[in-house]
Design brief:
By secondary structure, the protein is mainly α. The protein contains four helices and no strands. Helix 3 packs across helix 4. It is globular.
Length: about 80
């Protein structure tokens, strides 16, 4: 299903499950993801609202918030296929 970036962002902001909206989702273990892709670190500041929504989604998926952010960013920039 093709949607606009704005619609994607709105669905994410509304707490909807956005993983089915990814063009090329690939499931891999976090060990595999960290080993293959993580070379640098970055600090990101989120508004309280965004932080809470990401944290809520991470709890729902039973993953660490940091791991969820890594996956979302990697998917969005096309690192995972």
């Amino acid at each position: 299903m093709k949607i606009t970036a704005k619609e994607f962002d709105e669905r994410f902001d509304n707490g909807e499950d956005i993983f089915d909206l990814m063009e090329n989702p690939k499931i891999m273990s976090m060990d595999e993801f960290n080993r293959d892709f993580m070379k640098k670190s970055v600090t990101i500041n989120f508004s309280q609202e965004v932080y809470d929504k990401i944290n809520q989604k991470a709890k729902l998926l039973k993953v660490k918030m940091e791991d969820l952010i890594k996956i979302i960013v990697a998917e969005r920039v096309g690192v995972l296929d």
